[in-house]
Amino acid sequence: MTYVVTDNCIRCKYMDCVEVCPVDCFYEGENMLVIHPDECIDCGVCEPECPAEAIKPDTEPALENWLKLNADFAKVWPNITQKREPPADAKEFDGVPGKLEKYFSPEPGEGD
Ligand code: SF4
Ligand code: SF4
């Protein structure tokens, strides 16, 4: 089991999650974060910290595609352990449906 980052992180990226993870397993894309499934120890601490409610345990149904996206991009995006300023328009994108199709970027973020 692991936790995965899902749709509502895209363009929100508040980064409250990265500071609480005891094993630093968040990786940063241009406009979202992912969790490395092989590094996550399933502690669950990050889930309630996410203001966008974007972090879910992979035991929830229909998360296979998100698990694959987290696994694939955690291998190529840089590690992030410190919170930075979220995008200025993050609030406007909170809860917008279908962000994966509309806004996902495969480009890496800055990392720490
Ligand atoms: S706190 Fe939630 S929305 Fe913010 S970066 Fe982490 S997973 Fe994404
Ligand atoms: S469940 Fe724990 S180990 Fe996994 S990403 Fe969240 S804080 Fe890190």
TrEMBL record:
The keyword Kinase does not apply. SUPFAM superfamilies: 4Fe-4S ferredoxins. Its cofactor is [4Fe-4S] cluster; [3Fe-4S] cluster. Keywords: 3Fe-4S, 4Fe-4S, Electron transport, Iron, Iron-sulfur, Metal-binding, Repeat, Transport. Residues 82-104 have a biased composition (Basic and acidic residues). Signal peptide: none annotated. GO terms for molecular function: 3 iron, 4 sulfur cluster binding; 4 iron, 4 sulfur cluster binding; electron transfer activity; metal ion binding. Pfam families: DUF3470, Fer4. Residues 81-112 are annotated as: Disordered. Residues 1-30, 31-60 form the 4Fe-4S ferredoxin-type domain. Ferredoxins are iron-sulfur proteins that transfer electrons in a wide variety of metabolic reactions. PANTHER family: FERREDOXIN, OXIDOREDUCTASE. This is Ferredoxin. The lineage of its organism: Bacteria, Pseudomonadati, Pseudomonadota, Alphaproteobacteria, Hyphomicrobiales.
